[in-house]
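Problem: given the chain below (152 residues), write out its structure.
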Amino acid sequence: MQDRETWTTGSLVWHLALRWRAGVDRAIAHLGLTHAQYSVLASLHGLVSVGERPSQRELATHTGLQRIYISKLVRALEKGGFVVSERDDRDGRAVRLDLSDEGGRVIVLAKGIVRELDAENTRVLTEAGGRELAELHRALGALLDATEAGDE
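Solution.
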């Protein structure tokens, strides 16, 4: 086992993110999704569920991903039958996105699987009543807020 006490916080987060992503990839592969596709589809599901039909640009802003990456992921999701797109009536350059029936069905299943995986991955932090998990959420949120301020 490596001496992680000497690792930077960034290195710990990076290694954990790699493992987490690989775990999600394995857990939802049978649904025809990758972790990246899941993230975009879950975000789209959230927006659609409140009545929005975002453009690719709006989805990119919402997810924090680059527009070119969103474009590639949306194309793959559309090809897989999970997403439908349509030109915006008011802006011919914009494409509005929606979930297909299959996309809606699959994202509900995928979200359940990812929630179970999340609970399994964080079980070590909930064994003492969940205080550690709540503190981790608070600390990661603070780090995200700090890095967002640097992006502006």
